[in-house]
Amino acid sequence: MHIAQEKLLKLLDTQNVSGLTLRQIGGKIGETGSPQKIKHHLDQLAKRGLIKIDRQNNTIEKTRGGLSAENNLVSLPIVGSANCGEATYFADGYAEGYLKASKTVLGDLVDKINNLFVLRAVGSSMNRAYIDEDTIEDGDFVIVDKTEKQLRNGEYVVSIIDGVANIKKLFLDDKNQRVVLVSESNEDLPPIYIHQDDLDSYFIAGRVVKVMKQPDELADFRNAAMADALKGLGDISKEEYDYYENLCLPKEK
């Protein structure tokens, strides 16, 4: 997340900026340049579902998770990424956005919305795993029930090892007194072995309960939209240009 967006979220925690101009909002976070930059960052926060902008009533407020009484949509916090291969992506628990879904899409999970969080899957080492007939592929959203942390044989879990999140299938090897975390993939990836005496460094963040597939066309659409947004930002520093340009670059699959 861009530092300006972090500043805007912190500002909204303490102040009501509704009715202020873009220039006034920028001044409160130390950004005195182009108001279009502030508009861009506010729009990005809104697209992520972190804030709500009502242009008709000129209000801006932070989004809260849970069920919306207005449109019957459920907002689940996206807290980061989980690697499906080597453990390289941290899940720090900080909501970087909200995944919105209707009650019918979530089904019985609606009754547990306060116990659910979302991770983006990174990597392809679980592309032969099936959660209700859906595989876990790079870029998919994985819904996790944080209350289900027991060691149960054959479950798909989000495990935390040395502070790093992984999505794996869990097996209990009672004979050798160890837990085995397995990738289910068309790649030849080795399991992770954890002896029962070393479980203090191992933590289950929850059980994977649903996979939300992301259409391939969506990434192309987002890249085109970001390229259009870049044109209207005016004069910016090289650091800012690199940031915005990276948003527009096509993502490798």
From TrEMBL:
All copies of domain Peptidase S24/S26A/S26B/S26C, residue ranges: 77-209
Pfam family, one: Peptidase_S24
InterPro entries named in the record: LexA-like, LexA/Signal_pep-like_sf, LexA_repressor, Peptidase_S24_S26A/B/C
Residues annotated as transmembrane: none
Domain of life of the native organism: Bacteria
Listed Gene3D superfamilies: Umud Fragment, subunit A (2.10.109.10)
PANTHER family: LEXA REPRESSOR, LEXA REPRESSOR-RELATED
Name listed for the protein in its UniProt record: Peptidase S24/S26A/S26B/S26C domain-containing protein
Taxonomic path: Bacteria, Candidatus Magasanikiibacteriota
